[in-house]
Amino acid sequence: MIQQENANWNRLLEWAEAAEAQVSPMFRSLDKIAERNQWKVIQAFQRHRVSDFHFNGSTGYGYNDRGREILDFVYADIMGAEAALVRPHFVSGTHTISCALFGLLRPGDELLYITGRPYDTLHKVIGKPGDGTGSLQDFGIKYVEVPLAADGAIDWGGVASKVNERTKVIGIQRSRGYEWRSSYTVAEIGEMVKRVKVMKPDVSVFVDNCYGEFTEELEPTQVGVDLMAGSLIKNPGGGLAPTGGYVAGTKHAVELTSYRLTAPGIGGEVGATLGTLRAMYQGLFLAPHLVGQALKGSVFAAAMFEMLGYETNPRWDAKRTDLIQAVKFSDSKQLIAFVQGIQRAAAVDSHVVPEPWDMPGYEHPVIMAAGTFMQGGSLELSADAPIREPYIAYMQGGLTYSHVKYGVLNALSLLAERELIVIKPYTT
Ligand SMILES: *Cc1c(COP(=O)(O)O)cnc(C)c1O
Protein backbone atom coordinates (compact mmCIF):
# COMPACT_ATOMS: atom_id res chain seq x y z
CA MET A 1 0.00 0.00 0.00
CA ILE A 2 2.83 2.38 0.73
CA GLN A 3 3.37 4.66 -2.24
CA GLN A 4 6.66 3.84 -3.92
CA GLU A 5 8.73 6.62 -5.40
CA ASN A 6 8.57 6.18 -9.13
CA ALA A 7 8.58 8.26 -12.29
CA ASN A 8 4.81 8.87 -12.22
CA TRP A 9 4.82 9.86 -8.56
CA ASN A 10 7.66 12.33 -9.10
CA ARG A 11 5.91 13.84 -12.11
CA LEU A 12 2.69 14.14 -10.12
CA LEU A 13 4.57 16.05 -7.42
CA GLU A 14 5.63 18.60 -10.03
CA TRP A 15 2.04 18.99 -11.24
CA ALA A 16 0.95 19.37 -7.61
CA GLU A 17 3.50 22.13 -7.08
CA ALA A 18 2.08 24.01 -10.06
CA ALA A 19 -1.51 23.42 -8.94
CA GLU A 20 -0.78 24.78 -5.47
CA ALA A 21 0.84 27.91 -6.91
CA GLN A 22 -2.22 28.45 -9.07
CA VAL A 23 -4.77 28.05 -6.25
CA SER A 24 -2.97 30.07 -3.58
CA PRO A 25 -5.36 33.07 -3.79
CA MET A 26 -8.28 30.65 -3.23
CA PHE A 27 -6.48 29.19 -0.22
CA ARG A 28 -6.14 32.66 1.29
CA SER A 29 -9.85 33.36 0.96
CA LEU A 30 -10.74 29.94 2.43
CA ASP A 31 -8.43 30.62 5.38
CA LYS A 32 -10.26 33.84 6.00
CA ILE A 33 -13.68 32.12 6.05
CA ALA A 34 -12.32 29.47 8.43
CA GLU A 35 -10.90 32.17 10.68
CA ARG A 36 -14.16 34.14 10.85
CA ASN A 37 -16.12 30.97 11.60
CA GLN A 38 -13.60 29.93 14.25
CA TRP A 39 -14.11 33.26 16.01
CA LYS A 40 -17.88 32.98 15.65
CA VAL A 41 -17.80 29.54 17.31
CA ILE A 42 -15.50 30.64 20.14
CA GLN A 43 -17.67 33.69 20.82
CA ALA A 44 -20.79 31.51 21.03
CA PHE A 45 -19.05 29.21 23.53
CA GLN A 46 -18.06 32.28 25.55
CA ARG A 47 -21.53 33.86 25.53
CA HIS A 48 -23.01 30.64 26.89
CA ARG A 49 -20.20 30.23 29.44
CA VAL A 50 -19.29 26.71 28.36
CA SER A 51 -17.45 24.92 31.18
CA ASP A 52 -15.85 21.56 31.75
CA PHE A 53 -18.90 20.23 33.63
CA HIS A 54 -21.04 20.62 30.51
CA PHE A 55 -19.13 17.71 28.99
CA ASN A 56 -20.18 15.16 31.62
CA GLY A 57 -23.35 13.82 30.00
CA SER A 58 -26.31 12.06 31.56
CA THR A 59 -27.94 8.65 31.82
CA GLY A 60 -31.50 7.32 32.04
CA TYR A 61 -34.07 9.97 31.09
CA GLY A 62 -31.37 12.60 30.93
CA TYR A 63 -33.46 15.24 32.73
CA ASN A 64 -31.70 18.55 33.40
CA ASP A 65 -28.72 17.67 31.25
CA ARG A 66 -27.17 21.14 31.29
CA GLY A 67 -24.50 20.24 28.73
CA ARG A 68 -27.18 19.14 26.25
CA GLU A 69 -29.21 22.32 26.80
CA ILE A 70 -26.23 24.63 26.42
CA LEU A 71 -25.08 22.83 23.26
CA ASP A 72 -28.51 23.57 21.74
CA PHE A 73 -28.06 27.26 22.62
CA VAL A 74 -24.53 27.36 21.23
CA TYR A 75 -25.66 25.84 17.92
CA ALA A 76 -28.64 28.21 17.69
CA ASP A 77 -26.31 31.15 18.34
CA ILE A 78 -23.78 30.08 15.66
CA MET A 79 -26.53 29.40 13.13
CA GLY A 80 -28.30 32.71 13.90
CA ALA A 81 -31.46 30.74 14.71
CA GLU A 82 -34.03 31.06 17.50
CA ALA A 83 -33.48 27.46 18.57
CA ALA A 84 -31.59 24.27 17.81
CA LEU A 85 -31.78 20.61 18.72
CA VAL A 86 -28.46 18.76 18.67
CA ARG A 87 -28.68 15.11 19.58
CA PRO A 88 -26.73 11.87 19.38
CA HIS A 89 -30.17 10.23 19.00
CA PHE A 90 -30.45 11.37 15.40
CA VAL A 91 -28.89 8.30 13.76
CA SER A 92 -27.93 10.03 10.50
CA GLY A 93 -28.59 13.01 8.28
CA THR A 94 -31.52 11.19 6.67
CA HIS A 95 -33.11 10.51 10.06
CA THR A 96 -32.67 14.15 11.07
CA ILE A 97 -34.27 15.41 7.84
CA SER A 98 -37.06 12.84 8.21
CA CYS A 99 -37.86 14.06 11.76
CA ALA A 100 -37.87 17.66 10.52
CA LEU A 101 -40.25 16.95 7.61
CA PHE A 102 -42.60 14.75 9.67
CA GLY A 103 -42.52 17.50 12.30
CA LEU A 104 -43.60 20.24 9.91
CA LEU A 105 -46.06 18.37 7.68
CA ARG A 106 -49.57 16.97 8.31
CA PRO A 107 -51.81 14.71 6.19
CA GLY A 108 -53.26 16.74 3.31
CA ASP A 109 -50.28 19.13 3.24
CA GLU A 110 -47.88 19.38 0.33
CA LEU A 111 -44.10 19.35 0.34
CA LEU A 112 -42.65 21.13 -2.69
CA TYR A 113 -38.96 20.57 -3.46
CA ILE A 114 -37.74 23.36 -5.73
CA THR A 115 -34.15 22.12 -6.23
CA GLY A 116 -35.01 19.02 -8.24
CA ARG A 117 -34.67 15.45 -7.02
CA PRO A 118 -33.47 15.32 -3.44
CA TYR A 119 -30.59 13.17 -2.21
CA ASP A 120 -31.05 9.42 -2.84
CA THR A 121 -31.68 8.34 0.77
CA LEU A 122 -34.65 10.72 1.02
CA HIS A 123 -36.61 8.97 -1.74
CA LYS A 124 -37.89 6.35 0.68
CA VAL A 125 -38.67 8.94 3.34
CA ILE A 126 -40.91 10.62 0.76
CA GLY A 127 -42.15 7.21 -0.42
CA LYS A 128 -45.32 6.56 -2.40
CA PRO A 129 -49.00 6.83 -1.51
CA GLY A 130 -50.09 3.55 0.07
CA ASP A 131 -46.59 2.03 0.18
CA GLY A 132 -47.28 0.77 3.70
CA THR A 133 -43.93 1.96 5.10
CA GLY A 134 -45.10 5.01 7.01
CA SER A 135 -43.38 7.32 4.52
CA LEU A 136 -44.57 10.91 4.08
CA GLN A 137 -46.78 10.02 1.11
CA ASP A 138 -48.07 6.90 2.87
CA PHE A 139 -49.35 9.28 5.56
CA GLY A 140 -51.21 11.33 2.96
CA ILE A 141 -48.66 14.11 2.63
CA LYS A 142 -48.31 15.01 -1.02
CA TYR A 143 -44.89 15.40 -2.56
CA VAL A 144 -44.22 17.57 -5.59
CA GLU A 145 -40.87 18.49 -7.11
CA VAL A 146 -39.81 21.05 -9.68
CA PRO A 147 -36.87 19.78 -11.78
CA LEU A 148 -34.00 22.20 -12.21
CA ALA A 149 -33.70 24.08 -15.50
CA ALA A 150 -31.07 22.80 -17.96
CA ASP A 151 -28.50 25.31 -16.64
CA GLY A 152 -29.05 24.14 -13.03
CA ALA A 153 -31.12 27.19 -12.09
CA ILE A 154 -34.44 27.05 -10.24
CA ASP A 155 -37.38 26.86 -12.66
CA TRP A 156 -39.35 29.75 -11.19
CA GLY A 157 -42.19 29.39 -13.67
CA GLY A 158 -42.52 25.79 -12.58
CA VAL A 159 -42.45 26.74 -8.91
CA ALA A 160 -45.13 29.41 -9.38
CA SER A 161 -47.38 26.88 -11.14
CA LYS A 162 -46.98 24.31 -8.32
CA VAL A 163 -47.48 26.50 -5.23
CA ASN A 164 -51.07 26.21 -4.02
CA GLU A 165 -53.12 26.56 -0.85
CA ARG A 166 -51.95 23.14 0.42
CA THR A 167 -48.22 23.90 -0.01
CA LYS A 168 -46.90 23.82 3.53
CA VAL A 169 -43.16 23.32 3.15
CA ILE A 170 -40.71 24.39 0.44
CA GLY A 171 -37.72 22.04 0.33
CA ILE A 172 -34.25 23.21 -0.74
CA GLN A 173 -31.14 21.05 -0.95
CA ARG A 174 -28.06 23.24 -0.60
CA SER A 175 -25.49 20.69 -1.73
CA ARG A 176 -25.21 19.05 -5.14
CA GLY A 177 -25.36 15.61 -3.52
CA TYR A 178 -24.83 13.00 -6.25
CA GLU A 179 -25.77 15.40 -9.04
CA TRP A 180 -23.69 17.25 -11.60
CA ARG A 181 -25.19 20.61 -10.71
CA SER A 182 -24.17 23.67 -8.76
CA SER A 183 -24.71 23.85 -5.04
CA TYR A 184 -26.66 26.85 -3.79
CA THR A 185 -24.87 29.57 -1.90
CA VAL A 186 -26.41 31.07 1.21
CA ALA A 187 -27.07 34.29 -0.72
CA GLU A 188 -28.92 32.32 -3.41
CA ILE A 189 -30.94 30.51 -0.74
CA GLY A 190 -31.83 33.91 0.75
CA GLU A 191 -33.18 34.99 -2.65
CA MET A 192 -35.21 31.75 -2.89
CA VAL A 193 -36.74 32.41 0.53
CA LYS A 194 -37.78 35.94 -0.55
CA ARG A 195 -39.35 34.71 -3.76
CA VAL A 196 -41.34 31.81 -2.28
CA LYS A 197 -42.56 33.95 0.62
CA VAL A 198 -43.91 36.47 -1.88
CA MET A 199 -45.82 33.61 -3.55
CA LYS A 200 -47.07 32.24 -0.21
CA PRO A 201 -46.19 34.18 2.96
CA ASP A 202 -47.12 31.41 5.43
CA VAL A 203 -45.03 28.67 3.79
CA SER A 204 -42.14 27.17 5.78
CA VAL A 205 -38.78 26.89 4.05
CA PHE A 206 -36.74 23.83 4.91
CA VAL A 207 -33.08 23.45 3.91
CA ASP A 208 -31.11 20.21 3.78
CA ASN A 209 -27.85 21.77 4.95
CA CYS A 210 -25.73 18.60 4.80
CA TYR A 211 -22.11 19.39 3.80
CA GLY A 212 -22.78 23.14 3.90
CA GLU A 213 -21.93 24.19 7.46
CA PHE A 214 -18.98 26.59 7.86
CA THR A 215 -18.17 26.69 4.14
CA GLU A 216 -19.37 30.31 4.13
CA GLU A 217 -19.57 32.96 6.82
CA LEU A 218 -23.37 32.77 6.99
CA GLU A 219 -25.73 29.82 7.36
CA PRO A 220 -29.18 29.45 5.73
CA THR A 221 -31.01 30.26 8.97
CA GLN A 222 -29.36 33.70 8.80
CA VAL A 223 -31.18 34.50 5.55
CA GLY A 224 -34.75 33.65 6.53
CA VAL A 225 -34.89 29.84 6.36
CA ASP A 226 -37.38 28.42 8.90
CA LEU A 227 -35.67 25.10 9.55
CA MET A 228 -32.49 23.36 8.45
CA ALA A 229 -30.92 20.02 9.25
CA GLY A 230 -27.52 18.40 9.06
CA SER A 231 -25.44 15.45 10.17
CA LEU A 232 -22.78 15.44 12.89
CA ILE A 233 -20.63 12.94 11.01
CA LYS A 234 -20.32 15.65 8.40
CA ASN A 235 -19.14 19.26 8.87
CA PRO A 236 -20.35 20.42 12.30
CA GLY A 237 -19.21 17.28 14.14
CA GLY A 238 -15.62 18.30 13.40
CA GLY A 239 -14.50 14.71 12.92
CA LEU A 240 -14.97 14.01 16.63
CA ALA A 241 -18.73 13.66 17.19
CA PRO A 242 -19.26 9.90 17.06
CA THR A 243 -22.87 10.13 15.79
CA GLY A 244 -25.83 12.52 15.70
CA GLY A 245 -27.57 15.30 13.86
CA TYR A 246 -28.93 18.78 14.42
CA VAL A 247 -31.78 20.99 13.39
CA ALA A 248 -31.84 24.77 13.77
CA GLY A 249 -34.58 27.25 13.01
CA THR A 250 -37.61 28.90 14.54
CA LYS A 251 -38.53 27.82 18.05
CA HIS A 252 -41.77 26.31 16.81
CA ALA A 253 -40.21 24.33 13.94
CA VAL A 254 -37.46 22.97 16.20
CA GLU A 255 -40.04 21.96 18.82
CA LEU A 256 -42.15 20.14 16.21
CA THR A 257 -39.02 18.24 15.11
CA SER A 258 -38.25 17.30 18.71
CA TYR A 259 -41.70 15.68 19.05
CA ARG A 260 -40.86 13.39 16.12
CA LEU A 261 -37.43 12.52 17.48
CA THR A 262 -38.85 11.51 20.88
CA ALA A 263 -42.60 11.87 21.52
CA PRO A 264 -45.20 14.65 21.62
CA GLY A 265 -45.06 16.28 25.05
CA ILE A 266 -41.52 15.05 25.66
CA GLY A 267 -39.53 16.64 22.84
CA GLY A 268 -36.03 17.81 23.69
CA GLU A 269 -36.50 17.69 27.46
CA VAL A 270 -35.26 14.10 27.73
CA GLY A 271 -32.56 12.02 26.11
CA ALA A 272 -29.44 10.77 27.87
CA THR A 273 -26.34 12.06 26.14
CA LEU A 274 -24.17 9.36 27.76
CA GLY A 275 -20.53 10.13 26.95
CA THR A 276 -21.04 12.03 23.70
CA LEU A 277 -21.06 15.70 24.77
CA ARG A 278 -17.35 16.42 24.99
CA ALA A 279 -16.82 15.15 21.45
CA MET A 280 -19.80 17.17 20.18
CA TYR A 281 -18.47 20.38 21.78
CA GLN A 282 -14.85 19.83 20.80
CA GLY A 283 -15.85 18.76 17.30
CA LEU A 284 -17.91 21.93 16.90
CA PHE A 285 -14.91 23.95 18.07
CA LEU A 286 -12.69 22.27 15.46
CA ALA A 287 -15.27 22.22 12.65
CA PRO A 288 -14.49 25.60 11.01
CA HIS A 289 -10.81 24.71 10.69
CA LEU A 290 -11.43 21.17 9.45
CA VAL A 291 -14.02 22.36 6.93
CA GLY A 292 -11.37 24.81 5.69
CA GLN A 293 -8.83 21.99 5.32
CA ALA A 294 -11.34 19.87 3.40
CA LEU A 295 -12.25 22.80 1.12
CA LYS A 296 -8.60 23.47 0.33
CA GLY A 297 -8.27 19.80 -0.52
CA SER A 298 -11.24 20.03 -2.90
CA VAL A 299 -9.80 23.11 -4.60
CA PHE A 300 -6.46 21.34 -5.02
CA ALA A 301 -8.19 18.25 -6.41
CA ALA A 302 -10.15 20.35 -8.91
CA ALA A 303 -7.00 22.16 -10.06
CA MET A 304 -5.02 18.92 -10.48
CA PHE A 305 -7.72 17.10 -12.42
CA GLU A 306 -8.40 20.13 -14.62
CA MET A 307 -4.70 20.46 -15.46
CA LEU A 308 -4.68 16.79 -16.42
CA GLY A 309 -7.65 17.24 -18.72
CA TYR A 310 -10.66 16.20 -16.65
CA GLU A 311 -13.93 18.02 -16.22
CA THR A 312 -14.68 19.04 -12.63
CA ASN A 313 -17.60 20.55 -10.75
CA PRO A 314 -17.12 22.97 -9.11
CA ARG A 315 -14.14 24.32 -11.04
CA TRP A 316 -11.08 25.12 -8.93
CA ASP A 317 -11.77 28.86 -8.86
CA ALA A 318 -15.52 28.69 -8.19
CA LYS A 319 -17.01 29.96 -4.93
CA ARG A 320 -17.67 26.99 -2.63
CA THR A 321 -20.75 26.36 -0.52
CA ASP A 322 -20.30 22.67 0.29
CA LEU A 323 -17.56 20.06 0.58
CA ILE A 324 -18.30 18.05 -2.51
CA GLN A 325 -15.94 17.92 -5.44
CA ALA A 326 -17.14 16.07 -8.52
CA VAL A 327 -14.77 14.78 -11.21
CA LYS A 328 -15.99 13.29 -14.48
CA PHE A 329 -14.18 10.22 -15.85
CA SER A 330 -14.51 8.58 -19.22
CA ASP A 331 -15.39 5.05 -18.07
CA SER A 332 -16.12 2.89 -15.05
CA LYS A 333 -12.51 1.62 -14.89
CA GLN A 334 -11.21 5.12 -14.28
CA LEU A 335 -13.99 5.78 -11.78
CA ILE A 336 -13.18 2.65 -9.79
CA ALA A 337 -9.43 3.33 -9.89
CA PHE A 338 -10.00 6.85 -8.57
CA VAL A 339 -12.06 5.63 -5.61
CA GLN A 340 -9.63 2.80 -4.86
CA GLY A 341 -6.75 5.28 -5.02
CA ILE A 342 -8.42 7.51 -2.42
CA GLN A 343 -8.84 4.49 -0.15
CA ARG A 344 -5.20 3.54 -0.65
CA ALA A 345 -4.17 6.89 0.85
CA ALA A 346 -6.12 6.40 4.09
CA ALA A 347 -4.61 5.96 7.54
CA VAL A 348 -7.39 3.48 8.39
CA ASP A 349 -8.23 0.48 6.20
CA SER A 350 -5.80 1.34 3.41
CA HIS A 351 -5.35 -2.41 2.84
CA VAL A 352 -9.05 -2.77 1.94
CA VAL A 353 -9.95 -2.49 -1.73
CA PRO A 354 -13.46 -1.04 -2.14
CA GLU A 355 -15.78 -2.64 -4.71
CA PRO A 356 -19.19 -1.51 -6.02
CA TRP A 357 -22.14 -2.79 -3.92
CA ASP A 358 -25.90 -2.29 -3.56
CA MET A 359 -26.08 0.07 -0.60
CA PRO A 360 -29.35 0.36 1.34
CA GLY A 361 -31.17 3.53 0.31
CA TYR A 362 -29.33 3.93 -3.01
CA GLU A 363 -30.72 2.97 -6.41
CA HIS A 364 -27.51 2.04 -8.28
CA PRO A 365 -24.44 0.07 -7.19
CA VAL A 366 -22.14 2.49 -5.39
CA ILE A 367 -18.40 2.29 -4.79
CA MET A 368 -17.17 4.11 -1.72
CA ALA A 369 -13.76 4.90 -0.34
CA ALA A 370 -14.06 5.38 3.39
CA GLY A 371 -10.93 4.81 5.38
CA THR A 372 -12.38 6.74 8.30
CA PHE A 373 -12.19 6.87 12.08
CA MET A 374 -15.98 7.32 12.30
CA GLN A 375 -17.85 4.79 10.21
CA GLY A 376 -19.20 6.64 7.17
CA GLY A 377 -17.85 9.94 8.47
CA SER A 378 -17.61 12.19 5.44
CA LEU A 379 -15.90 15.25 6.88
CA GLU A 380 -13.11 12.70 6.68
CA LEU A 381 -11.63 12.11 3.24
CA SER A 382 -14.02 9.85 1.36
CA ALA A 383 -15.24 9.31 -2.18
CA ASP A 384 -18.45 7.92 -3.58
CA ALA A 385 -19.39 6.99 -7.09
CA PRO A 386 -22.64 5.51 -8.31
CA ILE A 387 -21.69 3.15 -11.16
CA ARG A 388 -23.76 4.76 -13.88
CA GLU A 389 -23.19 7.04 -16.83
CA PRO A 390 -21.80 9.71 -16.91
CA TYR A 391 -18.96 8.35 -14.78
CA ILE A 392 -18.72 10.89 -12.02
CA ALA A 393 -16.85 10.47 -8.74
CA TYR A 394 -17.78 12.64 -5.78
CA MET A 395 -15.07 13.23 -3.22
CA GLN A 396 -15.40 15.12 0.01
CA GLY A 397 -13.79 15.81 3.31
CA GLY A 398 -10.32 15.47 4.71
CA LEU A 399 -9.39 16.26 8.30
CA THR A 400 -6.07 17.62 7.06
CA TYR A 401 -5.19 19.20 3.74
CA SER A 402 -2.11 16.98 3.44
CA HIS A 403 -4.28 13.91 3.57
CA VAL A 404 -6.49 15.12 0.72
CA LYS A 405 -3.41 15.93 -1.34
CA TYR A 406 -2.06 12.45 -0.64
CA GLY A 407 -5.41 10.97 -1.68
CA VAL A 408 -5.49 12.86 -4.97
CA LEU A 409 -1.88 11.90 -5.76
CA ASN A 410 -2.58 8.26 -4.94
CA ALA A 411 -5.72 8.24 -7.09
CA LEU A 412 -3.84 9.68 -10.08
CA SER A 413 -0.93 7.37 -9.48
CA LEU A 414 -3.25 4.33 -9.48
CA LEU A 415 -4.86 5.54 -12.72
CA ALA A 416 -1.35 5.71 -14.20
CA GLU A 417 -0.37 2.26 -12.85
CA ARG A 418 -3.43 0.80 -14.58
CA GLU A 419 -2.52 2.67 -17.76
CA LEU A 420 -5.76 4.65 -17.70
CA ILE A 421 -3.86 7.95 -17.88
CA VAL A 422 -0.42 9.03 -19.02
CA ILE A 423 1.33 11.48 -16.68
CA LYS A 424 3.55 13.66 -18.84
CA PRO A 425 6.40 15.68 -17.32
CA TYR A 426 5.09 19.06 -16.18
CA THR A 427 5.98 21.99 -18.44
CA THR A 428 4.92 25.58 -18.01
C1 LIG B 1 -25.35 13.06 3.43
C2 LIG B 1 -26.55 13.74 2.94
C3 LIG B 1 -27.83 13.37 3.36
C4 LIG B 1 -28.11 12.19 4.22
O1 LIG B 1 -27.27 12.04 5.29
P1 LIG B 1 -26.91 10.58 5.84
O2 LIG B 1 -26.18 10.91 7.08
O3 LIG B 1 -26.06 9.91 4.82
O4 LIG B 1 -28.17 9.85 6.10
C5 LIG B 1 -28.89 14.11 2.89
N1 LIG B 1 -28.71 15.13 2.05
C6 LIG B 1 -27.50 15.51 1.61
C7 LIG B 1 -27.36 16.66 0.66
C8 LIG B 1 -26.39 14.83 2.05
O5 LIG B 1 -25.18 15.20 1.62
From TrEMBL:
Gene3D superfamilies assigned to the protein according to its UniProt record, in alphabetical order: Methioning gamme-lyase, C-terminal domain, Type I PLP-dependent aspartate aminotransferase-like (Major domain)
UniProt cross-references to InterPro entries, sorted A to Z: Met_g_lyase_put (IPR009651), PyrdxlP-dep_Trfase (IPR015424), PyrdxlP-dep_Trfase_major (IPR015421)
Signal peptide (UniProt feature, chain positions): none
Protein name, per record: Uncharacterized protein
Organism: Paenibacillus baekrokdamisoli
